[in-house]
């Protein structure tokens, strides 16, 4: 139970989803078995719809893990895109590279290896979409490093923004997570009130923020 929505509602929403493609299902099974965090199934479906509408050509992702989201993006866009993703965990990088090769996405997805704070400074060019799915207490830091790289009319997607309900209510907060929760609340307050963004917070999965860059 994520504390985001009622478990019965969550189960119903998931029951409506089509079965994932074979390679995505294999990645989902690996992630479940090895406790690797990937986007929730209902969030993956939301992302697919957004991609079909927005049709981004260049995507920047912060937090690659085993490459699930990046490959979901590339597959949804029929590989008609360029994706740069950042990851610092060496085991995740090794597995992601293996997956990119295995499933034929090496030409579409480039992994920047190292700490996001340093690697994002090296990224050049502009992007149609940016996906934040890394350290939850560092979202504002990542935002400051990438927002100027997002085109006007671009989409910023921030995942896990309700953090098992802790961001929404103190009754869910675990003491050792207080700093992360405080920082995430500050981040959400910022992007919700920023003049050049239109932001919507959505209570599916572990919470998703969608931000449209107006100028």
Distance between the termini: 38 Å
Quickly give the structural class.
alpha/beta
Strand order of the largest sheet: 3-2-1-4-5-7-6
Q: What is the global morphology?
A: globular
The CATH class label is Alpha Beta
As a percent range, the share of strand residues is: 15-25%
Q: From N to C, what is the helix and strand string?
A: HHHEHEHEHEHEHEE
Give the arrangement of secondary structure elements:
Elements: H1 7-15, H2 22-34, H3 41-54, E1 58-62, H4 68-76, E2 82-87, H5 90-103, E3 109-113, H6 116-122, E4 127-132, H7 139-146, E5 150-159, H8 178-193, E6 197-202, E7 208-213
Parallel strand pairs: 1-2, 1-4, 2-3, 4-5
Antiparallel strand pairs: 5-7, 6-7
Helix pairs in contact: 3-4, 6-7
Q: How would you concisely characterize the structure shown here?
A:
This protein is an alpha/beta fold and 215 residues long. The protein has a single domain, classed as Vaccinia Virus protein VP39 (Rossmann fold).
Description:
- The protein has 215 residues and is an alpha/beta fold.
- The chain has one domain: 3-Layer(aba) Sandwich (Rossmann fold), CATH 3.40.50.
- It has eight helices and seven strands.
- Helix 3 runs parallel beside helix 4.
- The longest helix is centred in the last third of the chain and has 16 residues.
- The relative contact order is 0.15.
């Amino acid at each position: 139970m994520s504390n985001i929505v009622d478990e019965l509602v969550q189960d119903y929403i998931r029951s409506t989803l089509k079965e994932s493609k074979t390679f995505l299902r294999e990645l989902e099974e690996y992630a479940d078995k090895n406790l690797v965090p990937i986007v929730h199934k209902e969030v993956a479906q939301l992302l697919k719809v957004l991609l079909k509408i927005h049709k981004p050509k260049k995507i920047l992702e912060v937090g690659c893990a085993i490459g699930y989201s990046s490959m979901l993006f590339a597959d949804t866009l029929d590989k008609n895109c360029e994706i740069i993703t950042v990851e610092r965990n060496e085991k995740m990088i090794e597995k992601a590279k293996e997956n990119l090769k295995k499933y034929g996405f090496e030409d579409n997805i480039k992994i920047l290896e190292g700490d996001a704070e340093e690697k994002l400074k090296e990224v050049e060019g502009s992007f149609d979409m940016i996906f934040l799915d890394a350290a939850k207490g560092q979202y504002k830091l990542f935002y400051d490093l990438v927002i100027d790289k997002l085109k006007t009319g671009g989409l910023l997607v921030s995942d896990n923004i309700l953090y098992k309900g802790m961001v929404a209510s103190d009754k869910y907060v675990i003491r050792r997570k207080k700093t992360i929760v405080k920082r995430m609340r500050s981040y959400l307050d910022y992007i919700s009130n920023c003049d050049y963004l239109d932001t919507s917070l959505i209570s599916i999965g572990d919470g998703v923020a969608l931000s449209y860059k107006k100028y």
